[in-house]
Amino acid sequence: MKNQRSKEWFEFPGYYGLMRRAWFRSQGLPADVFDGKPLVGICNSWSEFTNCNAHLRDVAESVKRGVLAAGGVPVEFPTISLGELFMHPTTMMFRNLMAMDVEECIRAYPMDAVVLLCGCDKTTPAQLMGAASADIPAIVVPGGPMMAGEFRGQRLGSGTDAKRMFDLYRTGRMTDEEWSEVEGCIARTSGHCTVMGTASTMTSLTEAMGMTLPGCANIPAPDSRRRAIAEMSGRMAVEMAGTDRTPSRILTREAFENAITVLMALGGSTNAVVHLIAIAGRLGIRLTLDDFDRISRRTPCIADVKPSGAGLMEDFFHAGGVGAAMTRIADLLHLDCRTVNGQTLGESISLSRVLNDTVIRTREGALSQEGGIAVLYGNLAPDGAVIKQTAASPHLLTHRGRALVFENREEMAARIDSPDLPVDRDTVIVMRNTGPKGAPGFPEWGHIPIPQKLLDKGSPGGGVTDVVRMSDARMSGTSYGTIVLHIAPESAVGGPLAIVETGDEIVLDTPARKLELAVPQAEIEARLGRFTPPLRQYDRGYGRLFLDHVTQAHLGCDFDFLMPGYTGGQ
Predict the structure, then answer these.
(1) Is the dihedral of CA 425, 431, 434, 437 positive or negative?
(2) Are 493 and 437 in contact (CB under 8 A)?
(3) How far apart (Å, rounded) are the C-alpha atoms in residues 136 and 245?
(4) Are 329 and 300 in contact (CB under 8 A)?
(5) Percent of the chain at pLDDT above 70?
(6) Region 135-151: what's the mean pLDDT?
(7) CB atoms within 10 A of CB 370
(8) Which tops the pLDDT comparison, 11 or 46?
């Protein structure tokens, strides 16, 4: 029965059934609203603090039209929203809180299906995590990427080009007036970043996993087709109600392997590694870093989109989008996976075509014959680390240099532009206490700026545009450079990163997947024996809950008690 959940709620005998119906009718609904019609929840992450999602009220109206047209009853409800640039200390601190909000709202309200409206980085995985745990029919409608900015003839991709231009500004090669002009034009519409950052990556992977209608992920936010596909998604939600098209039936292990394959082909964000592991964990599916590296080695990077390539998300959309990209790597995908529209993935992409070989390249002309992300192991990262190899400098992917260690982000920010900083082009910049527990919250602090003395072409040894940097932090998917991230275990829990000293030699060998501290093992063990954990930064509230229960990067940074099989403890 399509309305079984809501039927039990509204046809409840006596006082409570009457009051529930009456409270709905107080919103101007007629009595026949309860006559067998499925009730479709619209989970809206709209917020004016989340500029990526600021247009989702309009998208919700389109979803409602679709639900009504298909004979359902649309009911919009809010959850917390996560605005990447406006939350302290980081939105990642609150991804799990939003996932709990989404899950509990779906469980508590009498909906027969749910439409998830998302966009900004953490809103998409948070909604998928919550929906996976609640496990009623669910379909995702992302808000889409913003349109490209333009500055004096240059097309700008939010995030990626802002970082590049900041280096020009801080070294005096851009005036205050030009910097102000960039501020006014780099983000000129609603929608998430128009590069293959975390937001575009996660919405693309959501489509690849079959949780959106085909073609939904990459339509630009201001494009009228965004509203049209939202209406179609509302109709589909009514069709899905009462069926077994639930997240647990769609988000299978094979679907996650498809997502990892597409992640590598798109040169997508390193953050997707953490999010996919967390979403899969809600369903009892164990993804490991080895799964990502195995699939990366066989998957070419074919999307010529910043920060790995040159194009922007609207170019990718016009070239055919994620569906077209999947046709180029179809032999690497599980095409028999189910999707929300009732078709298999193979059927859903059967009509997709690549319309621009420059943006979505052939396998032979790929940016890289391996995927965008490589997984590193070694005595510095026993539980793994990641590097976005397609956005790194090729000559630095194999490197040996002496460490310059910053104890935390505050020290790094205070010293990075010091003219007497002991750094040269071979230095490996190390920053610690920036992981899930150490920061806390696992913020996007991993894009450590290039020291000004290296950027300045007038300085001895200047004119350097990249050096090896590493930390236990994340970085924005819009970032680029030879940057090692997610080093696990993190320094705050006694991982080897905690005992690196300035002057130690570090060896990075990306082709061999190695990250090593060139210090005798006996010395490493002696230093670890002297390790003292940093003071906890929260002793109450959600912050304490986070510190008590968040898992490490290689386990998805979810809360242990939200994963199947949890039996208590920390």
Answers:
(1) positive
(2) yes
(3) 8
(4) yes
(5) 99
(6) 95
(7) 20
(8) 46
pLDDT category of residue 168 using cuts at 50, 70 and 90: confident
Looking at the domain assignment, is residue 31 inside a domain?
no
- DSSP codes, 26-51: TTT--GGGGSSPPEEEEEE---TT-G
Name, in order, each residue with C-beta under 8 angstroms of 528's C-beta and a sequence gap of 6 or more: 494, 496, 498, 499
**pLDDT at residue 171, as a whole number:** 83
Kindly indicate the confidence band of residue 457, based on its pLDDT and cuts at 50, 70 and 90: confident
Distance CA 488, CA 474 (A): 12
Per the structure, the count of domains in the chain is 3
The DSSP code sequence of 330-354 is GGGS-TT-B-TTSSBHHHHTTT---
Q: Structural domain of residue 179, as residue ranges?
A: 149-185
Q: Which residues on adjacent β-strands are paired with residue 114?
A: 41, 138
Is 240 within 8 Å of 41 (Cβ atoms)?
no
Residue whose token pair is 């359902």? 72
Q: Phi/psi of residue 498, each to 5°?
A: -65, -20
Q: Which of 185, 208, 239 is the last residue of a domain?
A: 185
Amino acid at 140: V
Name the residue among 120, 119, 129, 48 with its Cα closest to residue 91.
120
pLDDT tens, 485-529? 999 999 999 999 999 999 999 999 999 999 999 999 999 999 999
